[in-house]
Amino acid sequence: MYANDPGYEPTLPIFRCAGAGSYRFLALQRSLHGVKQHWCGQSLPCPGEHCCPFCREGMHPRFVGYIVVALPTNEKRILEVPHSSHGPFRTAEQNGALFRHVINVTKGNDKSAWRIEIEETQLAIATQEISGEELLDALARIHSLPRRRSFVDVALWREALERAAIARLTIALGRETSKASS
Ligand SMILES: [Zn+2]
Question: Of 1, 108, 164, 177, most Cβ neighbours within 10 A?
Fold first, then answer.
């Protein structure tokens, strides 16, 4: 039912602040979107404790934040924010001070926590807000899960996402268990 073709859409890749350094982004959304994920050779979204095969085995998901940003080059990316760095984003979104604000991230070294400053931009820029649905759709594309455009109805899409995630996790769990028993 879902189209897996690369299609005509521009891609929206994930950006990770991988190494030490300073990073600067412009927020294109009003909030940070939290996604629970399990690691099984790749990250797979957790469909929720009530139906997740990994959670049922007592494996806890990690909670990762995502927000669409513009880089200084004006390219759009999905910024991945580790759980330990969600705080300043939550404060900014509660104050309505995230969208169209500049996010400065400094990392001392590869493993160190992010130092985050979120400030108003001095530039008069016309930025288009990216919806949560667009972000979720881009993440679905990255994980090869059903795409929004294949469904007329959002509720049906979300159900299909959940089913597909359960199926993928069940296969991954089978692999893990057979590895452990061999
Ligand atoms: Zn789970």
Answer: 164
Q: Which residue has the tokens 């969600």?
A: 86
Rounded-to-integer distance, Cα 168 and Cα 83, Å: 24
Rounded alpha-carbon distances, angstroms, from residue 57 to 36, 42, 54, 176: 16, 18, 5, 11
Distance 113 CA to ligand 1 centre (A): 25
What are 22-42's pLDDT values in tens digits? 999 999 999 999 999 999 888
What are the residue ranges spanned by the domains of the chain? 14-181
Q: What's the CA-to-centroid distance between 140 and ligand 1, angstroms?
A: 16
The total number of residues shown for the chain amounts to 182
- Distance (Å) from CA 84 to ligand 1 centroid: 19
**Rounded CA separation 164/19 (Å):** 33
- Distance (Å, whole) CA 161 – CA 47: 8
